[in-house]
Design brief:
Blueprint: H1 14-23, E1 28-31, H2 33-39, E2 47-51, H3 55-64, E3 68-73, E4 78-82, E5 88-92, E6 94-99, E7 104-108, H4 112-117, E8 126-128, E9 135-137, H5 141-147, H6 156-162, H7 166-177, H8 184-192, H9 202-213, H10 219-228, H11 230-234, H12 243-253, H13 259-266, H14 271-280, H15 285-294, H16 304-323, H17 342-346, H18 354-369, H19 375-387
Parallel strand pairs: 2-5
Antiparallel strand pairs: 1-2, 1-8, 3-4, 4-5, 6-7, 8-9
Helix pairs in contact: 7-9, 7-10, 9-13, 13-15, 14-15, 18-19
């Protein structure tokens, strides 16, 4: 793995050069995901910088250079510079003074190595000089990146006790960047400390779980979480076994992986229980409805177009992929509108009321069953229903 950052497109941004100049020579370095992902040849979504300057000095220097800033996290030393090419978070070098598993009290004025030591994984503690592009690696992150190894900095158990969410972050990074067998000490610490996750908010757990499930292939990692007892702590109702088949079905059908659908694969086919789980994890109403719809799967592929008419294309796609059905019947197809209204039935002499609804639903069911025939056939079905 190279000791210098390759000249990726984002590094050449003029607005970044202006920010670096405003902060001053040697005062700031790129850190974390942007460095890691550039080394791996991956797209860079977010850019973070670390700086020796205190937050108020960062704000003053940016103001002098006509760069807008937002004080997004002053208590933790973070200022966001609003640039034309996208925001950049700038955080003062710091070290932890006290932690309680959820929050940390920090002190500014640390050195680069001390700042790196408070980060979670070695591959996230890589710094790059914005001018020379030279990389500073204090804990073997470059070697770990080359080996596809996710490893805590220092004592894994101690790092987890500082922030319990690091257990789930470990598995997310393992799914994205790691290989198997995983680093043994990190896995052991996650398993040993798993019950600490119970002290975190359900929102944080749900959010981290959904980030994991959105990755290209979280199957092996979720299976490993189940084996280590971690999945059972955050989602006691989960069964990891169906997930690999769903991921394979998504790939086979050319459908992008979807975190909500993958979560449905882990949950029982019980809409009432799924509603309770969704509420517990503080999911949105839309997510809850979608998960409950997917929970109606009984393991047998259903008629694709009938499903799409009843549940919508998204709901049908979920059900078919979860049960091993084919999406081919839905290619280029849109659910039609039922060509019969209650008024049409009243016009045939049926008194308005429950009987009209009964007839309407009966004809609609036959229409769906027969594959959505034309209006003439609907009228014939109406005649049959009225005559029965």
């Amino acid at each position: 793995m190279t000791d210098f950052l390759t000249p990726a497109g984002w590094i050449q941004r003029p607005d970044l050069a202006a920010l670096v100049a405003a902060l001053g020579p040697g005062n700031a370095r790129y850190v974390g995901g942007a460095v890691r992902d550039t080394l791996l040849g991956l797209p860079v979504a977010d850019i973070d910088m670390a700086t020796v300057l205190r937050p108020e000095e960062v704000i003053a220097r940016c103001h002098a250079a006509d760069i807008k800033t937002v004080p997004t996290g002053l208590a933790h030393g973070t200022v966001t510079a609003v640039l034309a090419g996208g925001p950049v978070e700038i955080t003062t070098l710091r070290q932890d003074i006290a932690t309680n598993g959820r929050h940390a009290e920090v002190a500014f004025g640390a050195g680069w190595r001390e700042d790196a030591a408070r980060r979670d994984f070695t591959i996230n503690a890589l710094y790059a000089d914005p001018v020379t592009h030279e990389i500073s690696d204090y804990f073997g992150g470059l070697d770990d990146l080359a080996l596809r190894r996710v490893r805590f900095i220092g004592d894994a158990e101690a790092r987890i006790r500082e922030d319990h969410l690091r257990i789930l972050r470990y598995f997310r990074f393992q799914a994205r960047f790691g290989s198997y067998p995983a680093e043994e000490m990190s896995e052991h610490a996650c398993a040993k400390c798993a019950t600490m996750l119970m002290g975190l908010s359900r929102e944080r757990i749900g959010g981290e779980l959904m980030k994991l499930l959105a990755l290209p292939d979280p199957g092996p990692t979720v299976t490993r979480m189940a084996e280590l007892g971690v999945l059972g702590v955050i989602l006691p109702e989960a069964n990891a076994a169906p997930l690999p088949a769903l991921i394979a079905a998504e790939a086979r059908e050319g459908v992008p992986g979807d975190a909500t659908r993958r979560l449905a694969a882990l949950l029982p086919s019980d809409p009432v229980m799924v509603r309770q789980i969704s509420s517990r994890l503080r999911f949105s109403t839309a997510q809850k409805k979608r998960l409950m719809s997917a929970a109606g799967c009984l393991g047998t592929p259903e008629n694709a177009r009938a499903l799409a008419y009843r549940l919508g294309l998204e709901g049908a796609t979920d059900r078919l992929l979860l049960t091993g059905g084919s999406l081919a019947p839905l290619a280029g197809w849109q659910p039609p509108q039922f060509p019969l209204k209650g008024g049409d039935i009243v016009a045939r002499g049926v008194s308005a009321g429950p009987e009209v609804a009964r007839i309407l639903y009966a004809v609609e069911d036959r229409w769906v069953e027969e594959g959505f025939p034309d209006a003439a056939r609907v009228q014939a079905l109406l005649e049959q229903t009225l005559g029965s």
